[in-house]
Amino acid sequence: MNWDFLVQQVVSGLTLGSMYALIALGYTMVYGILKLLNFAHGEVYMMGAFAGLGVMTALGGPDAPIVPVALMVLVMFLAGMSASAVLAMGLERFAYRRLRNAPRIAPLITALGASFFLQSTALLLFGARRRSYDSAEFIDLRGGIHWGPLNASPTRLLTISTTVTLMVLLTLLVSRTRLGKAMRAVSFDREAAAMMGIDVDRVIVATFAIGGILAGAAGVMFGLVYFSVYHLMGFTAGLKGFTAAVVGGIGNIPGAMLGGLLIGLAESFSAAYVSSTFMDLIVFSILIVVMLARPTGLLGRADIKKV
Amino acid sequence: MKKHYLAALLALVLSLAIAAAGCGGDDEESSGTTGGGTSSGPAQAASCTGSIAAMGPYTGDAASIGQEQLDFTKYAVEKFNEDNGTDFKLEEVDTQLDPAQASTGAQRVVSNDDILGVLGPAGSQEVDAVGPIFTRENLAFISPSATDTKLTESGKYPTFFRDVPNDAAQGPTDAEFIADTLGAKTVWVIDDQSSYSTGLAESTTTALEDAGVTVKRESISQKTTDFSALVSRVKDADVAFLPWQLGSQAQTFGNQLAEQGSDAVIVGSDGLFTEDFSIKDSYVSSFAPDIKGIESSQELVQGYEAEFGKFSSTFGPPAYAATNALLTAIKQACDDAGGSPAREDIVDAMTNVDIEQSILGGPLKFDENGDPEGAKFYIFKVLGKGKYELQS
Amino acid sequence: MTEPTEPQAPKDERAPAAPKVGVDEWVAQYERRRQERAGPFAPLVRVWDLTPRPAWMAAVVLLAVVYGIFATNSGDLRIGINTILFALLALGLNVVVGWAGLLDLGYIAFYGFGAYVYAFVASEKFGVHLPTPAAVGVVIAATALLGLLLGLPSWRLLGDYLAIVTLFFAQIFLVVTTNGNRINVPGHDGPADITGGPNGIPGVDAFGLGSTEAVEVKTYYWIALGAFVLVAAALYLLNDSRTGRAWRALREDPLAAEAMTMPVNRLKLLAFMFGAATAGLTGSIFAAVQIGVFPQNFELFLLITIYAMVILGGAGSIGGVVIGAVTIGVTLEILRDADWGRIIFYVLLVSAVFVIVRPWRHVPWVVAAVVVFGVLLNQIAGAVWPRGVGRTPLGADGPLGGLVDDWVLLPERPGTIGSIAFVLLVLGALALTLSRGWPRVAGAVPLLYLGAFVWENKLIFQPSVTRFLLVGALLVFVMNLRPQGLMGTARVEIV
């Protein structure tokens, strides 16, 4: 048993899983509140990554940053998070708000259309070539932790720790604050919450914003760890994040976190032990199996409809 | 109210569309997709006009290669028109190295009667996609970078030519370098699933195994962004041979190799000869020499750089030589036919092309399969972004 | 119901306060209300309502036949073939989504599957060269079978969950075809190449009957048109049959349908199978025309385009769907070419004026204002900063090229400023949707000019990206404006 190899895959899986979990949280929260599958969420993530890249270029680029590296990374994160949050709120206001009571197909198709529009916008503005964060230039990738079989570069450590922090913050937000309580109420029964005096619009906007913040952070992380950002990255990561949300139980926040980690680990392990050719297939098949066996996901509640 | 003005609008658009299609039947069509192509006027009797189409990855991940090929093609068309008093035009068709887009582009090219020949496509998988279409229409096409051996040896595409050697030569050359010069004992050969890559990987693997080297094979896709799992298996090898088409992917791979503390040397094929791949002390092979070192081409180099700026890879010059050959053939067919040549005539003329001194430093002639006679591969060491040192 | 309660007519906020009527009377007055709302277009609406649908379809087919006879350029014919293929796909999707109300986001997988099966049985890939009728028959049967299999999850999964599963089936299809050249089959030496991977399967056989082969593009046009007529006729008959009515019942209220002892599960499977078979047939024609199949032909964008066609036409009506397909299909094809793309763009711009500006008597003023604005701006910029506006537009000798030259600002290096202008345009358009009255009309003038600016400086150079942009924007816009589609009827629930 090659421990080095195994531990390496666990680290890879956790890194990847963190990003998927963050994206999945965005999907799951919006679905919980609006019963809307926000297919454009992947593009929100992608724009966050590009915003981080833009800020980095403005600060001198990977070769010659004009501020200390730590500060630059922090600013990149903030830029990514705010850009994504703004974009998510814009989507809610202009694409989804009028469709809250429309037949099921309308918001779905709108989301797909918005996703395409954003992808094409990125293609138009940034070109089709992959841009590189070139994090190798300003972060020494050979650093980080090297304890026995455990090898983790600084970027991976940053990813995992930031994700844990964000998840803790989110859980606190949802369980301890008034906004969190309002979010839970609205996702339980929107009309009743409105009747109880909760400003449903504000809660929905806040939900989209939080989902955007998380996705933006994931985007910047992706750039730092895997270097290349391009206009289609939102689509592929969005699908995986979406898978994670559904596997964990869509509408369920701990489910999204769990689902993300599971999918990340599954992808890493299948790439390592089976074949990188079919890792996507394995991940998607996990989804299909879970959906057929337990449609509400691993941690989801069975939906009881009154007729 | 709303429903019906929209219906009226639809009717308007529909009728416009039909009118456009009906009237557009005998107008010439512009098939350029990235702009910069001008449609040519009607062919005049007893004078040589017409266009060629250039197909390649002008946007997308391989754009650094495609753009350089396109610039050299434009330069070649300019120079040829200047030197020969002709007025050939150039149409651009962007394929993004994607066979589906190449196929669609090829269909538009064949429906444009002014196009007499095609420069490109760049990738071997694209040649496979457009080959049947061009063969059916007897349209000559010459690629400056598609190296898959089967394209010429199978005889499936009798109108296909190329001015770069094929992978039957690249495999052994690279293998010899890896085994002898680098002295490697274990090598990982990883392909990116394109037909170019798998063909080259096969021929290199065979040659390496013949030389007594241990070879392990793997495969990634052109959409892969995370190589960590693969890297952890590869990191203890001596050499990683990457016959990939996308330099940016190889760059990520190299960075992740360094991240995991590996000392493996990366040897790449011609696809990695681009600014996107700049891992120091790695090697790339190329099907063309660095023409900045060739005396007879200096005037052309200076002319090119004055107009288009500096160039850094070896993809551009073969495009120049190929365009030159194609235009020579078209002019020849034109003169023989006394005016507007047919597409078949140009295919014939191509088989007889005999250029004494091409920009690549030697003569250019095609054998009966469409391969250039006497071409070979060169190995370069990567010193940094765009900086190379010839090894052999 | 134990106690008859007085049913209330649903609120129609635009109609004047009408006397309350009973439900039956309200339903019977439906057409009169439609014509009232149509205003000046009432005669058109009457003609539309009174002509039987098959007459419209026959007219469209006649137009297509005329087109086929007079178009000689193979490029034009290919546009026609692509449009017909789109229409076929839209018809098939209409069966699943419009009639049976099943959210199938994996429809493209059937199309691709059909194309690949044709490539398997009629190319050099496996050395099998079935004659065309047999090959197409195999394709239809295989795709219908796949439709059956994929329809099985629809028994347990409703609404969103079905959409998710079907979407992922489509992704699985893409993954399998893209990676299908490296499958490790036990007992086979080395990896087996089944689908050709990302390089696809080039060189499939042409259609042929007996010893004649279809080589000309025009022959394929007639084949596609023939297939379309057959499928449209079959579906029309199906719509009127018991199955069609059962599907409509299923769509409106699955629970009630089941309570009425309709075999809901079988109906769902039947819908999937019909949709799949149509897509499979279309796939085989596509493969023969393109002389090859590649996985990149079947990506999500195509699905969205087909959905746009179905939605635009109003899901559920054959005629609407076909018109949607023809409109969007032709527009997309024309947008590939810069000259005609420009015409389409300006037509869209003018129609945008109609959408933005109400009431319509203001429209001529707005159009005039935009033109004057542009000319003035051009003059000022020309005097102050000549290098910024000197470029000749792309296709200056094409239609409208000369007009554009004097009206739109054309900086020498349009790249960056074009990008900024694009972002401003999107933001401005969104802001415009929030405003009303005079600010809206006033804001429309510079915004429309900005739209033309972005087109001439950025979009026209990248027709493929522009197509994506337009389809995406169209979908979002139409869905927000009219969720039931342009020609669909609004769902009215009587509570």
Q: Can you characterise this structure?
A:
The complex is a heterotrimer of chains A (307), B (392) and C (495). In chain A, 73% of the residues lie in helices and 3% in strands. Chain A is mostly helical and 307 residues long. Chain A has one domain: ABC transporter involved in vitamin B12 uptake, BtuC, CATH 1.10.3470. In chain A, strand 2 and strand 3 form a beta hairpin. In chain A, 58% of the residues are buried. Chain B has two domains: 193 residues, 3-Layer(aba) Sandwich (Rossmann fold), CATH 3.40.50; 120 residues, Rossmann fold. In chain B, 43% of the residues lie in helices and 17% in strands. In chain B, the strands form three sheets. A seven-stranded mixed sheet of chain B has the order 7-6-8-9-10-13-14. In chain B, strands 2-1-3-4-5 form a five-stranded parallel sheet. A two-stranded antiparallel ribbon of chain B has the order 11-12. In chain B, a hairpin with a 2-residue loop joins strand 13 and strand 14. The longest helix of chain B has 22 residues. The two termini of chain C are 13 Å apart. The N terminus of chain C is likely disordered. Chains in contact: A-B, A-C, B-C. At the B-C interface, helix 1, helix 3 and helix 4 of B face helix 3, helix 4, helix 5, helix 14 and helix 15 of C.
Q: Keywords, please?
A:
heterotrimer, A: 307 residues, mainly alpha, ABC transporter involved in vitamin B12 uptake, BtuC, two-stranded antiparallel ribbon, 4 strands, 73% helix, C: 495 residues, two-stranded antiparallel sheet, globular, disordered N terminus
What's a concise summary of this model?
Chain A is mainly alpha-helical.
Structural class of chain A: mainly alpha
- The CATH architecture term of chain A is Orthogonal Bundle
Question: Could you give the distance between the termini of chain A?
Answer: 55 Å
Task: Indicate the radius of gyration of chain A in whole angstroms.
Answer: 19 Å
- What pattern of helices and strands is seen along the backbone of chain C? HHHHHHHHEEEHHHHEHHHHHHHH
- Biggest beta sheet attributes of chain A: 2 strands, antiparallel
CATH topology of chain A: ABC transporter involved in vitamin B12 uptake, BtuC
Helix content of chain C: 55-70%
User: What is the assembly state of the chains in this entry?
Assistant: heterotrimer
| C-alpha termini separation of chain C | 13 Å
Tell the overall outline of chain C. Answer: globular
Low-confidence stretches of chain C: 1-6
Task: Using a beta-carbon cutoff below 8 angstroms, give the protein chain pair with the largest interface and the number of residues from each chain.
Answer: B-C, 57 and 64 residues
CATH architecture of the largest domain in chain C: Orthogonal Bundle
SSE order of chain A, as H and E?
A: HHHHEHEEHHHHEHHH
